[in-house]
Amino acid sequence: MSELGLYEGYRLSELSPFELWAEYLAVGGGADQLEVEAYVLGILRPDRLQHNLIAQALNEVFLDRGLDHPVGYHDPAR
Amino acid sequence: MAVRGRDLAETFRAAARGVSPEERDLLLRTVIAVVPETVSGVVSVSLTCWDGGRFQTVAASDPVALRLDEWQYAADRGPCVDAARQGRRTFVPDLAQAGQGFAAAAESTEVRSVLSIPLPRPADHAGLNCYAAGGAVFAGGLGEARLELLGRTAAALLGGHPSETEPTGARFEAALARRREIDRACATLARRDGITVDEALRALSAEAVRRRVTMTTAARELLRGDADE
Question: What is the value of ipTM here, to two decimals?
Answer without folding.
Answer: 0.90
